[in-house]
Amino acid sequence: MLNKLKIEINHFKSQPHNFRILILTNLVYAFVLPVIDTFVAAYIMRSTHGDITKVVIYQLTIYTGIPLTFLLNGWLLKHFDIRKLYSAGMMLSGVSMIVMMSLKELDLYGIALAGTIMGLSFGFYWANRDYLALAITRDDNRNYYYGMETLFYTIISVIMPISIGLFIDSQIGDAQKHTAYIIITGVVFVITILASIVCFRGTFKNPEQKQYVFFKFHPLWYKLLSLASLKGLAQGFLVTAPAMLILKFFGNEGALGSANSIGAVIAAIIMYVLGRLAKPSDRIKIFAAGLILFAFGAAVNGVLFSQVGVVTFILLLLIAKPLMDLAYFPIQFQVIDIVSKIEKRSEFAYILNHEAGLYVGRFLGAATFLFMAKYGSAEIALRYAVVIIAILQLCSIFVAKTIIKQGQLENKPDAPILSTEEAGVIAPV
């Protein structure tokens, strides 16, 4: 056992310096993500007396801010070191929480303000993180990269939710619980500073090309955008759905932490093994397994809509989501590798445009939930919106197969390189 552990450590050490620094940066910041994903939603529900529509509105303001920040980030990359923008994204997440905790009344304007700042945070963070991950990895080590990221994140997801949930539940009264959230916010801000310090140990370079905005792309890219929209459907409200379901059926943050942590243990083991051993040819199988688990969990929750149904859904979701991500990101990056060479554009142009595809799906997902909550009820939305979206996401399996098949044809050494006119490309703006 010890020898196997040494082998894995040596394998990690054999990776390039920037590969290791990016992993370590994301490892530190991973302590923040469970707080943002779960307990911010719980705080909004507690502060608005269980109004789940405000949680979804908060999520929608975040997702509206992200693509706008991707665009702003592209312009700022002409003037600022990518490490500074990456660090700014991490630190803004703490600022967003500070703003939210400082509000006396959490009305729609306050939620929109905090959500917009968090959207700025995520925009800077993900725009630069995705570009750096693309720049420092190759197709043959991307499964390993995302397997490592997921391993660290899921292990931390065991520790953080339980610790935070118990800490909040140990406080008596709303005032004490509010103070607990403020303390957590302070810790989050300190962690973002530490993650930024680690980031500056890398020698990351800005994208060389300075033009990032295009309006027409190679046909293969449009297929990936459709896959991104399907992925975004679930993100529209699924980040906060577990918190809403747990608080509805269990009523406390401690149960929320426990449910997250149990699934995270299982996911951590699965993700590392797959990331270490899976081949690029296995991505469709991994992707399909994640989507099917998600659909099954959503169906169980929809049928039972009880404590058993919620726990089953969350456990399966915690396994399904990293499975989908483990396959999705390498597929996305492989397509970017191919089309950026064909169209002779910066990889960041595709990372920026990809966010537009995600936003379309996120908006439709959140809108579906809000529509069902308004014209039906919050319970109907929580029960059936997840099922509808999970079924729609199963289409991703067939879209991904088409993308990989076409990508293999385009990537052959003797494959014809399309001209800009043949590929449907126009001049940048």
UniProtKB/TrEMBL annotation:
**Record-linked Pfam families:** MFS_1
Per its UniProt record, what InterPro entries does this chain match? MFS (IPR011701), MFS_trans_sf (IPR036259), Sugar_transport-like (IPR052528)
Q: Keyword Translocase on this protein? A: no
SUPFAM superfamilies to which the protein is assigned, alphabetical: MFS general substrate transporter (SSF103473)
Record-annotated membrane-spanning stretches? 21-44, 56-76, 85-103, 109-127, 148-168, 180-200, 220-243, 255-274, 286-304, 384-404
Name the keywords, alphabetized. Answer: Membrane, Transmembrane, Transmembrane helix
Q: What is this protein called?
A: MFS transporter
